[in-house]
Design a protein that fits this description.
The complex is a heterodimer.
Chain A lengths: L7 H16 L3 E6 L6 H14 L4 E5 L6 H7 L3 E2 L3 E5 L2 E5 L2 H7 L3 E4 L15 H10 L3 E7 L7 H8 L9 H6 L2 E4 L4 H9 L9 H7 L3 H29 L12 E4 L6 H15 L3 E6 L9 H17 L2 E5 L4 H12 L3 E5 L5 H6 L3 H8 L4 E5 L22 H18 L6 H18 L2 H19 L12 H49 L3 H16 L3 E6 L5 E6 L8 H13 L3 E2 L11 E7 L2 E8 L10 H67 L6 H33 L7 E4 H11 L1 H4 L4 E4 L6 E4 L1 H17 L7 E8 L2 E7 L32 H11 L3 E6 L5 E8 L17
Parallel strand pairs in A: 1-7, 1-8, 2-3, 2-6, 6-7, 9-10, 9-12, 10-11, 12-13, 20-22
Antiparallel strand pairs in A: 4-5, 14-15, 14-18, 16-17, 17-18, 19-21, 22-23, 23-25, 24-25
Chain B lengths: L6 E5 L3 H13 L3 E5 L2 H11 L3 E5 L7 H9 L6 E6 L3 H10 L3 E5 L3 H17 L7 E4 L2 E4 L4 E4 L2 E3 L3 H12 L4 E3 H9 L7 H15 L9 E4 L3 E4 L10
Parallel strand pairs in B: 1-2, 1-3, 3-4, 4-5
Antiparallel strand pairs in B: 6-7, 7-8, 8-9, 10-12, 11-12
Helix pairs in contact in B: 2-3, 3-4, 6-8
Classes of the chains: A alpha/beta, B alpha/beta.
């Protein structure tokens, strides 16, 4: 595949990277093959030059090892005060990261990138400190020897025989903006060593012997040169790619590196990664772990965790699969992920054993049809390989008598029928007993049962009877077969049991994951999701958990927690805050702030970190397995997505609501605009005609036009009044001023207002005998009644009767206005109370459609309601309901009536 | 010496409303002077001694109620308030301060004229002895003999009801605020007990308005007070 220009996605990614990089500080590495080549010297030289040009240079850590020339260079540069840390009674001077971050120099010098920090500091390693400094935008100069590079660790060991413990991940090298190779021919270095210019003379001899051999130095120099060249080449091709050059030849490769614990896996990993870097291919590290993890020693288990962490550091993806039928699973993953090459370590199993239990590498080679499988040997170091003591599942003591039972039965049966059956028959019966025993018991009891069976077989059934002697050597074969059968059966039993236990475990995990995703899918409440996540984590790991979310003031607040969460002190909160700010995990079991009691994981979504999940692992009895870690990562990712989804949904709802409100407002405005303009048009038009005069307009027409002006003005006035009322009521600006009023006073008031319109109409009035009172705003309720009456007048023929009925029931006053008009179209009973709705009917409807809306708004402001309904015999009934929550107070004595 | 035309002082800040009032009042036989704010209005009132004042409540420089108060310190001239809808409280204040009646904008000219005539009539009668008998359609109120007849039939009222009716009748055609009624019937300490007033008036209405859906005597001015409306001027007592 050849592509000339980078795709849009790549360009975008590059822009994003560049933007990020612009914020980050620059990193320059002074790289060398061995101590003493002059890296610190070169660093100080350049730093001084920068200082002279005006850069704010700060010395973080500079180790001169007593070399006079180096010390001289260090004078004159500002030193950062070291942090004094006490460790096991010794006071150490360590680099003060927080002080440096606060001071924020333009350039910071940190010697020895591979240094391990003293316990109690934030990060385990200095290179982690450097990462944080770069994130803060501080430029850093540092020094590094080639033997400390992680991916070269095994090669260095092979070459020099020394295994270097302190390593620095390759990602830092790749991250470096500039690498300066400080090169020195080996002879010159050796000369400097003997001159005592390198180490303090007292140690010179030992250093010479072990490390500073000429052939070592030559090899190391080559490694350093090669590494630098590799980096240069990488930068070059990145540049070319950005400019649209040709990509590296060949199809896109993808590697799968299979790491088996206890089989020099680290070396396999490094070798695989080197190949991946050469091919510029992404790679996946896979560990077949699963059920057998219980059987591994503590060391091996730690190794697995280390492996996965290392894989992550080296820049690859890591996966864990079960170890049952590992080859099949691995190939499945490989095909699924589009892997082109598999790298696996070779096994040391030989011969017969290898044939019976083929090593994983061989299986893969055999089954991997179209995939390339590379088998790498790693280092043949006998000293490293130790047979790990294996531990099986604990066998309960109760199984011993259980296993012996079938044997006992078989023996008793045999004795009873000894003469009736042949030896062969007895053998088979005992075999059966062994099989049964092995099927129901663990290895220990099964083994014991087998032995006992064989012994009793010999004792009871082989002549000479009642002795352990054997007269016929054929029977030895029988014993052997019985033992083997017993052994195999019990092994199978164990395996089956382990599988069952693992199945259950898998089942439990799957159920937990399923429960979580299901809960999240349904939940809409962010708090419920938070609570649900911590509880799921608790279910999964039996560990206490707590979810932190940022609050408006800028701090981090625990939002949900499980019952036993006990980590609320300042130190723990600080770790959580750090995790949130840096989007990296920290706490127990990690390299950053490992003294914390809990492990803190960032919950991230594309827009950034939104929360932090704390898991109290420190309190657990057992250690977390890599598969647990993977599960936890999945959980945390799911929870983060769920929270984000809920937030986005709320945002979408809000946006939708805003759009809807806007739409309604636009609709309203256009309706109002139309209804305002129409009467204005008539008024302006009529006035215009009148002013223009002319002979065509007679007195009668003039009068007509003037009447038009008057009636349209009235209509306009009504509309404006209604609009104002509606606006004030809707916004809550108009609050009812309540007083106790007799309902009939309101009724009479309304009727009075419509006196002219009601003239000539038959009105049936039904009022209760006692004076019914309601605690309402008289002006507003009278107005509401007026609107109902107006509506009835509008929509009923002039000769039809109107009815008004007022009644009271406990808690409510009801006023009904009924007409014999065409009624309301079915289904529209609610809609007529909306703004500007006019019913399609044959009659002219004067005025706007706001009256009923105002009526409803008034009733709503009183806590009441208004409804409409068609009535039997034609027409409609409108019902006004006013809640009456108390009784009117009785009049004070001075207002009381004297007896008439 | 009074001119033949009654003099109306219009205190209103909107020029269009002033124009409309000026034109129509002049056409109906009134002389008009105008003022566009309270201060000028009061000055005109002292200088020209109008027969009637039309006062807009929404003046730019002072509260309408304030104008009424100041006016009332030295004049009994009838004052009609012109107010916008929804300003019940301001109306009540102005009425309680001494204004005689009110009109809600937008008002028809016919209504304005009716109220103005009623107010002028009342003012003219102020020196005449109080009428003792008032008639409105089928209703006949004999204040002297304390007797009320409806369609010739006597209607029995309790003392309070009678007192209420008399106050309204004495101010016939004019709005009486709740506070005024309460004060005149029960005394100043009962000035806030509006709800009881309403109940009593309801009793009164039931007794005296035969057909509630037609022909009204008692008019409810929502939020302000009551008005006993006489269709025609009351006959003087025989």
């Amino acid at each position: 595949m050849s592509d000339t220009r980078p795709s849009p996605e790549e360009l975008l990614a590059r822009i994003a990277r560049e933007k990020q990089q612009a914020l980050r500080g620059r990193l320059k590495l002074f790289f060398g093959m061995a101590p003493g080549v002059g890296k610190t010297y070169a660093m100080l030289e350049e730093a001084r030059a920068r200082a002279a040009r005006g850069t704010d240079v700060l010395v973080g850590v500079v180790l001169t090892h007593g070399r006079a020339e180096t010390e001289r260079l260090a004078q004159g540069l500002v030193q950062l005060a070291p942090k004094r840390v006490e460790h096991r009674g010794i006071v150490l001077d360590e680099f003060d990261l927080d002080a440096a971050l606060q001071r924020k120099p333009g350039l910071l010098l940190l010697d020895e990138l591979a240094h391990t920090n003293a316990p109690g500091l934030r990060h385990l390693k200095r290179w982690q400190d450097v990462e944080e400094l770069l994130e803060a935008g501080i430029e850093v100069y540092t020094t590094l020897n080639v033997q400390h590079v992680e991916s070269l660790n095994d090669v260095v060991e092979r070459v020099t025989g020394v295994r270097v413990q302190e390593t620095v991940p390759d990602s830092i090298l790749e991250r470096a903006d500039a690498i300066e190779l400080v090169d020195l021919p080996p002879d010159e270095l050796l000369a400097r060593l003997t001159e005592g210019k390198v180490y303090v003379p007292a140690q010179a001899e030992r250093a010479l012997q072990s490390f500073f051999r000429k052939e070592n130095l030559i090899a190391l120099r080559e490694l350093a040169l090669r590494k630098t060249a590799e980096r240069v080449d990488q930068q070059g091709s990145e540049y070319r790619r950005a400019q649209g050059g040709r990509r590296g030849a060949g199809a896109r490769e993808r590697l799968l590196i299979v790491l088996q614990p206890g089989a020099r896996a680290l070396d396999v990993l490094r070798a695989g990664r080197r190949l991946a870097v050469e091919l510029r291919a992404p790679w996946i590290a896979l560990v077949p772990e699963g059920e057998r993890i219980e059987r591994l020693s503590d060391e091996a288990r730690e190794e697995v965790a280390e492996l996965l962490e290392l894989a992550r550091q080296l820049g690859g993806e890591s996966l864990v699969v079960g170890s049952e039928r590992a080859a099949e699973q691995i190939l499945h993953v490989a095909r699924d992920r589009g892997v082109t090459r598999i790298v696996v370590g070779s096994s040391r199993r030989r011969g017969f054993f290898a044939a019976l239990f083929p090593p994983l590498a061989e299986e893969l080679v055999r089954r991997a049809e179209d995939l390339e499988v590379l088998v790498t040997p790693g280092i043949q170091d006998e000293a490293v390989e130790k047979p790990a003591p294996r531990r099986g599942l604990a066998t309960p003591a109760s199984e011993y008598p259980l296993a012996l039972l079938p044997v006992l039965l078989a023996v008793l049966l045999g004795i009873a029928t000894r003469d009736a059956l042949t030896i062969a028959d007895h053998a088979l019966i005992n075999l059966l007993a062994i099989l049964i025993a092995a099927s129901i018991a663990g290895r220990g009891p099964a083994f014991l049962a087998t032995l006992l069976s064989v012994a009793s077989f010999d004792f009871f059934f082989i002549p000479p009877y009642y002795t352990f002697a054997v007269s016929d050597l054929h029977h030895v074969l029988t014993f052997a077969v019985m033992l083997v059968v017993g052994f195999i059966a019990s092994q199978r039993t164990i395996v089956i049991r382990e599988q069952a236990a693992a199945s259950q475990e898998r089942e439990r995990r799957t159920a937990a994951l399923y429960a979580m995703t299901r809960a999240f899918a349904v939940e809409d409440d962010p708090l419920a999701i938070a609570q649900s996540s911590v509880e799921r984590v608790h279910d999964l790991l039996q560990a206490e958990a707590c979810l932190f979310q940022p609050e408006a003031s800028g701090g981090l607040r625990p939002v949900a927690r499980t019952g036993g969460w006990q980590a609320d002190d300042e130190r723990e909160s600080a770790v959580a805050r750090w995790v949130f700010e840096n989007d990296k995990r920290a706490g127990f079991g990690t390299d950053t702030l490992p003294a914390a009691r809990a492990l803190y994981l960032p919950m991230s979504v594309p827009r950034g970190t939104i929360a932090v999940m704390g898991v109290l692992i420190g309190a657990l009895e057992r250690e977390l397995r890599p598969s647990d870690h993977q599960m936890l990562d999945t959980f945390v990712a799911q929870a983060a997505l769920a929270l984000e989804r809920v937030r986005l949904r709320a945002e979408a709802d809000e946006a939708r609501r805003a759009v809807e409100t806007e739409r309604l407002r636009t609709d309203l405005l256009s309706s109002v605009s139309h209804d305002l303009r129409t009467p204005l048009a008539s008024i302006a038009g009529s006035a215009g005609v009148l002013l223009a005069g002319g002979t065509g307009v007679g007195r009668a027409e003039q009068r007509e036009l003037l009447e038009t002006i008057q009636s349209e003005s009235q209509r306009l006035s009504e509309l404006v009044t209604n609009l104002l009322d509606l606006t004030r009521l809707d916004s809550g600006a108009l609050q009812p001023r309540r007083e106790w009023c007799p309902v009939e006073e309101l009724v009479h008031g309304a009727l009075d207002r419509l006196r002219e319109r009601l003239a000539g109409r038959k009105l049936e009035l039904e009022l209760p005998r006692e004076i019914l009172q309601a605690n309402v705003d008289p002006v507003l309720v009278e107005q509401a009644l007026v609107h109902l009456l107006e509506n009835a007048l509008k929509y009923s023929p002039p000769d039809s009767p109107l009815e008004l009925r007022a009644s009271g029931s406990p808690g409510e006053v009801l006023i009904e206005v009924s007409d014999r008009g065409p009624g309301i179209p079915p289904g529209e009973e609610q809609r007529i109370f909306e703004k500007f709705v006019r019913l399609p009917d044959g009659m002219r409807a004067a005025g706007s459609g706001l009256g009923l809306s105002v009526c409803r708004a008034i009733l709503k402001a009183h806590g009441g309601s208004v409804s409409a309904e068609n009535r039997l015999g034609g027409g409609a009934t409108f019902r006004m309901r006013l809640p009456v929550t108390s009784a009117p107070p009785p009049p004070p004595a001075r207002l009381q009536e004297e007896t008439p | 010496m009074k001119s033949s035309e009654p003099l109306v002082l219009v205190i209103e800040d909107e020029p269009q409303v002033r124009r409309f009032l000026r034109t129509s009042l002049k056409a109906h036989g009134f002389a008009v002077i105008e003022a566009e704010n309270g201060t000028l209005g009061l000055r005109e009132a002292t200088q020209h001694v109008p027969d009637l004042v039309l006062l807009d409540l929404g003046l730019p420089d002072m509260d309408g109620t304030e104008v009424v108060k100041r006016l009332r310190t030295w004049s009994r001239v009838p004052v009609l308030i012109l107010s916008a809808r929804g300003e019940e409280r301001n109306k009540v204040e102005a009425l309680d301060a001494g204004a005689d009646d009110y009109l809600t904008k937008p008002f028809g000219f016919a209504e304005l004229l009716a109220r103005m005539r009623a107010a002028l009539r009342r003012a003219a009668r102020v020196d005449a002895p109080e009428e003792s008998v008032l008639v409105q359609g089928p209703l006949r109120i004999d204040l002297g003999r304390r007797r009320v007849e409806l369609g010739g039939e006597e209607v029995h009222l309790t003392p309070i009801e009678f007192r209420l009716l008399s106050v309204l009748a004495r101010h016939a055609g004019r709005v009486v605020t709740h506070k005024q009624l309460l004060t005149e019937v029960w005394g100043p300490q009962s000035a806030e007990e509006t709800q009881y007033l309403r109940v009593y008036l309801t009793h009164l209405r039931r007794k005296l308005e035969p057909d509630p859906s037609r022909g009204r005597i008692f008019h409810n001015e929502a939020g302000v007070g009551y008005r006993l409306e006489l269709a025609s001027p009351p006959e003087p007592s025989p």
